[in-house]
Amino acid sequence: MNEASRAKVLLAFAIVYLVWGSTYLGIRFAIETIPPFIMAGVRFFAAGAILYLWLRFRGAPGPSKAQWRSMSVVGFLLIGIGNGTVSWVELTLPSGLTALIIALTPFWFVSLEWMQNAIRPTREVIVGLLLGLSGMIILIDPANITQGGRLDPFATTILILATMSWAGGSMYSRSAERPASQLMGAAMQMLVGGAVLIVFGSIMGEWAVFDPSAVSTVSLAAFLYLIVFGSLIAFSAYIWLLQASSPARVSTYAYVNPVIAVFLGWLLAGETLTPRIMIAAAVILSGVALITAVKIRLAASSLRRES
User: Fold this and answer.
1) What is the CA radius of gyration of the chain?
2) Most exposed among 139, 199, 238, 265, judged by the fewest C-beta atoms under 10 Å?
3) How does pLDDT run across 119-143, given as a tens digit for each residue?
4) Residue 158 to residues 90, 122, 150, 193, 302: CA-CA distances in angstroms?
5) d(CA 224, CA 226)
6) Could you read off the pLDDT of 212-263 as tens digits, one per residue?
7) b/e map of 208-222 (b: 16 or more CB within 10 Å)?
């Protein structure tokens, strides 16, 4: 890899690490005066429409019906359920804790890969899984107090299920029929996922309670930040990284984002940062880091054998 290519990879990693880590706080500010499902739906639909139209203008071929079907499934699982749930649970969960719980996503990747391909996890991976489980027990303990109240068990459970949906959608996307352009696939996923969230928000009556004149400057700025930086720039950087680097290395975002989110939530939103939360964060992120390190080592070993 030459210096120019290395610089591009480092820049893309920096974007995914920092921008995605900041989107949890962005969501927190956006939903203060914008209903969560409407906010998330319009955010992704707008970003998907911009990217889709830009790609078509640049000459990208239109997707086939089969590609639309498969990308619709991925968009529903990743954005409709995964990201939509994040926006909703932040009504009751602090942004930092939300990011910590989402850090469990790599554990579901390991479990699904084990069930789907009969790939038995190594001893290190099993230790990592146990560390993550232990961290969640510490975090969700009934005695844990956050922002003057108990950690909402229902919202926490729904969020854990959403991480499973994200992992399942990601696993399915590996074999799903998709356009040759990774960015086109991302645009289709955002369009479908955004549309699903808008419809769901309508069913939940969010339009009836949404008052555009009551949207604060902070919420509007956060909403625009999520569209431009969270969806268009960071999501595009993530898709590009999947081609420029190994999936194992790209997955390191899973334990960098929570660190950024917890720090920003404490610094800018006054979110509680108790010793229990810090201990749980250390345990969860250690487990994810261990699993990711094993994946990177195995991927590097596989490349050496192939060469």
Assistant:
1) 19
2) 199
3) 677 788 788 878 877 877 776 654 5
4) 12, 29, 16, 18, 37
5) 5
6) 999 999 999 999 999 999 999 998 888 788 777 766 577 777 777 887 888 8
7) eeeeeeebeeebeeb
